[in-house]
Every structure is written in structure tokens, then in C-alpha cells.
Design goal:
elongated
Length: about 200
């Protein structure tokens, strides 16, 4: 069984199991993202005469905005879990993937925070240029689309932060495993070279 793979030695051997937590958080985030996109697609635009109004994004753009990272994270997590249990998931691969996904989630989460959560994102003066949510109908005193709920938005953004943190931890653990393996490889090379003399 690959869980005993010695490239993830010591306590680090369970680090790839973080992918299970990432998968669970990503599946829930994806479900919330689809719910948000569905509500945003069905919510009417506000007054089209306002100067900062932009046309409604296409349905596919709303879905990509809402669910791109959660969808690909679900696929990647399934692949990584399969690699871990069926084959040998190497720490260098995990370091590369977790770093790329950390950056992707950081960008995605920052956009969600800017456009949906922060008060700055709902200052209508010039905001319609970057955040299309400003232009859709909202409930009184709310920042979410009329047909959505605060829980969906906050849950999606909150779980996005959890996935971001899990990828940060996973990247650090993968880096530690890579460094441990390089030290071990250096020691074995020096032992082999001293034996050859």
C-alpha cells in the first residue's frame, strides 16, 4: 500500500491525507458555488439607466466566476487521493500542485471577498467595472443577490478560506518532505562515494 511510501517519511507520511479534507471542503464549496450562480443568473438587474451599469455577464461567465476553482479542486483532490493510495504520490509533485492551487485559491478568494463580502466592493461609484454583483437586485440591507442567501455567500467564501489554508499547510508539509528526501539522498550519495574509494 502506498501510504507506507518512504518518500513521505516519519510523521509526514500522513500529509497527503490532507487531500481528503480538501476534497470535502471543495465539494461543499462547489455546491454552494452552483447555488450562488443559479441565484445570480435568476436575479434581475437593477436600474439599467445608471452610468456605471455594465451588461449582465453570460450564464457561463457567472458559473466560471463562482465555481471554477472548487470544480477543478474536486478533480485534483480525487486524482491526488488516487495517486496516494494506488501509486506513489511524490512530495515534489504535491509541492508543485499545492503551490499552484494555493495561488489559484488566493486569487479566487480575493475576488470573492472584494466583490461579495467587503463593504468596499459595494461602493457603487465605479464598482460596476470590476464587480458585476453591484448591478443585480439585492435585498434591503444585504449584499447578496435577491434569490440567494447570506449563508450561501458566507459559506462559500468561508470554505474558500479553509481550502486556501489547507493548501498552505499541505505545501509546507510537502516542502519539508522534499527537503528531508534531498538530505537523505545527499547522505546516501556520500556513503556510496566513500565506499567507492
Amino acid at each position: 500500500m502506498a501510504i507506507l511510501n518512504n518518500s513521505w517519511a516519519g510523521r509526514l507520511r500522513y500529509a497527503p491525507l490532507l487531500n481528503i479534507a480538501i476534497l470535502i471542503a471543495s465539494v461543499v464549496t462547489f455546491g454552494l458555488a452552483v447555488s450562488y450562480a443559479n441565484a445570480a443568473i435568476k436575479t434581475p438587474m437593477e436600474n439599467q439607466a445608471l452610468i456605471y451599469m455594465r451588461p449582465r455577464p453570460t450564464n457561463s461567465k457567472i458559473i466560471v466566476y463562482s465555481a471554477f476553482m472548487p470544480f477543478f479542486t474536486v478533480l485534483q483532490s480525487i486524482l491526488d487521493i488516487s495517486l496516494h493510495f494506488l501509486f506513489s504520490l511524490q512530495p515534489i509533485y504535491s509541492l508543485a500542485v499545492s503551490t499552484v492551487y494555493f495561488i489559484g485559491w488566493l486569487v479566487q478568494w480575493s475576488i470573492w471577498m472584494h466583490c461579495e463580502i467587503s463593504g468596499i466592493g459595494f461602493d457603487n461609484a465605479g464598482k460596476g467595472e470590476t464587480c458585476w454583483q453591484v448591478n443585480i437586485d439585492h435585498r434591503k440591507g444585504s449584499r447578496v443577490p435577491f434569490r440567494s442567501s447570506e449563508g450561501v455567500v458566507n459559506g462559500r467564501v468561508g470554505l474558500g478560506a479553509v481550502v486556501l489554508a489547507l493548501y498552505a499547510v499541505y505545501a509546507v508539509l510537502a516542502l519539508l518532505a522534499v527537503l528531508r528526501n534531498r538530505r537523505g539522498a545527499g547522505k546516501s550519495m556520500s556513503v556510496k562515494s566513500s565506499e567507492m574509494r
